[in-house]
Amino acid sequence: MSKRLGKFIREAFFTLLIGAAVMTTYNVYLQKDMPSGMAPELRAMPVNGEEVDLYKLSEQKPVLLYFWASWCRVCHWVSPTVSDLSDDYQVVTVALASGDNERVAKYLNVKGLNFPVINDLQGSISKAWNVSVTPSIFIIRKGEIKSITTGYTTKAGILARLWLNQ
Fold first, then answer.
1. Can you list the pairs that 21-27 forms with residues at least 24 positions away whose Cβ atoms lie under 8 Å?
2. pLDDT (tens digit, 9 = 90+) per residue, 38-70?
3. Domain ranges of the chain
């Protein structure tokens, strides 16, 4: 390997490392006011399903709780992953400032998303959870918040969090 290529690889690695550190620090900052420990109560009727009781759902298996918005650019990449996972895992989603129930249902249909959606029209759920950034993903097990992720994440990252909390 030439010195030039070796230098390029070292610089690229260092840049990626710094970028990862900055993003991690930023995500920790975004999550500072979000709840930890026992999850706030979440019992609601989704736009497209039966009543959800987060605590009951999380008694036997972890639940992926996903806060998203139709206008969120990053959610356009994360939502299809969450939809795919909803076939095999317990998923509950909360739509923030995305319109009335009819508009949210139409959005889901157009995008081909298949997950239960609680429409947070008044913002009361996001306020109770101190969610101010989308997307935000919580892993809940036995009513307790086990993991929080904000911003973009991969399917492998979400699966790892679910697996760790089986």
1. 23/151, 27/149, 27/150, 27/151
2. 899 999 988 877 889 999 999 999 999 999 999
3. 33-164
Query: Position of tokens 């492998």?
Result: 156
CA dihedral over 134, 138, 143, 145, signed as positive or negative: negative
Token pair belonging to 99 = 């319109």
Provide CB contacts within 8 A for 166, sequence distance 6+.
61, 62
Is the model more confident about 32 or about 148?
148
Average pLDDT, the chain: 87
- Distance separating alpha carbons of residues 64 and 82, to the nearest angstrom: 8
User: In terms of pTM, does the model score above 0.85?
Assistant: no
CATH architecture of the domain formed by 33-164: 3-Layer(aba) Sandwich (3.40)
